[in-house]
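User: Structure with adenosine-5'-diphosphate, tokens only please.
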Amino acid sequence: MHIVFAASECVPFAKTGGLADVVGALPPELVRLGHKLTVYLPLYPQARRHLPANLSTVVPSITIPFEYYNRFAAVIDGGQRAGVQYYFIDCPELFDRPELYGPKGGEYEDNSERFALFCRAVIEASKILGVPQIYHLHDWQSALIPVYLRNTYGNDPVFQHTSCILTVHNAGYQGWFPPRTTQHLLFPWDLFTMDKLEQYDTFNFLKGGLVYSDLVTTVSRKYAEEIRTPEFGCKLDDIFTRRGSDLRGILNGVDYSEWNPATDKNLPANFTPQDLTGKDICRNELVAEFNLKPLENSTPLIAIVSRFAEQKGFDFIAPIASALDQRNLALVVLGSGEGSYERFFRNWALAQPDRVGIHIGYNDALAHRIEAGADIFLMPSRYEPCGLNQIYSLKYGTVPVVRATGGLDDTIEEWDPATKKGTGFKFHGYNPSDLLAAIDRALAAYASPDVWQHLMLNGMSKEYSWTRSAREYSALYEEAAARRA
Ligand code: ADP
Ligand code: GLC
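Assistant:
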């Protein structure tokens, strides 16, 4: 089958979070299953760095009409990698900006126009470069494709047998815009109702995608259940519920060619379950890299690598920071995002320079070195659709402490000292004391080197490769295609 992915992020071209890892890793896996894969992305400056200097244009100009003017986009050939064809939508006035979505923690004011143009350009480009059987869309930024397809392009004969699958990587980001967006994007006003594009007087990209896609997926089974409830549905729980069995959970995999301590080129030393000596080297070098005091073997190194966003549960860390100061541990943090979290971690590191280290920013190589050098990985997320870092941690022998939500709950099993089964430590309540209790269970286990080694090896033996998930997507493509055959 010919599958077209449209997304706003993809490794190696542009990344702010796990969406990019998924859009980077899943298409090559689908090629291995015999599908033809095309990936469309916006041409950001970040992406240009991964493309040849003299770009080759395959479509010089597509006209995208808005209410009072037209915009024009070109399609750039990004070439083939691992059998996947990449195309970039080039519209410099919308995409040639320093950030993907907006200045630090914010949004560009014209994001509705940027991503509506992207969606429509993908549809128009497909008519020239190849109409797929399936559009596989990711998050709100590409969620208007099904809306256009079933309305604006409703009578276009070439799309009569094309199905849409929307994957929700994070229901917390929906693309909310003022009602007049309807008119600006040239949709008829009768689409602006609560059963279509409207969500409580906002124009909502994600909702449009949920209404008009043939099938909807999200990135773990647990999250697929959670989002049907008011607590996790981010005010879309009714539509998630309404989609019933059309909403499925397929767990993300990991690209082990990128995230494997045996071969990872970012590490000062490699290691395997059979020979863990390299992990000690990684740990010592990481401690030095963060300018912490050299650690005794008995002191565990806890790590955080994350976007700093409310979703990630860092509000719980401040209330237990002084309790953690009393414990025998060290902490390294890599992240960027909301200023309040950056300030909190920075101040903590200033107060405890020997044992708390912070690096503000985005640094992929450092993220790998942290996964390898840490003993414990902390993800206290309020909600987590899948979460990739805890899965990377397992492979690197870094024991996760996580909140039992979404993909964190699906991928981490609580350590049971009696049976010696389990891969990490989980807490359920969304409160600081449950988090502290889980950290304390981890510290108690760390105090016994035999127990800890067992836990590490349990995690390292887990496989979350893409092969299984790609098969599940493949079956879903068949199902969606059959509906429009
Ligand atoms: P989310 O997509 O919600 O941010 P995931 O756990 O799915 O969470 O994926 C996060 C991805 O982004 C991982 O690959 C992680 O290593 C990476 N990442 C997050 N923050 C940083 C950072 N500051 N520097 C480098 N990589 C980061
Ligand atoms: C989102 C989610 C994260 C998930 C990632 C990839 O950003 O927050 O949990 O792992 O998408 O699907």
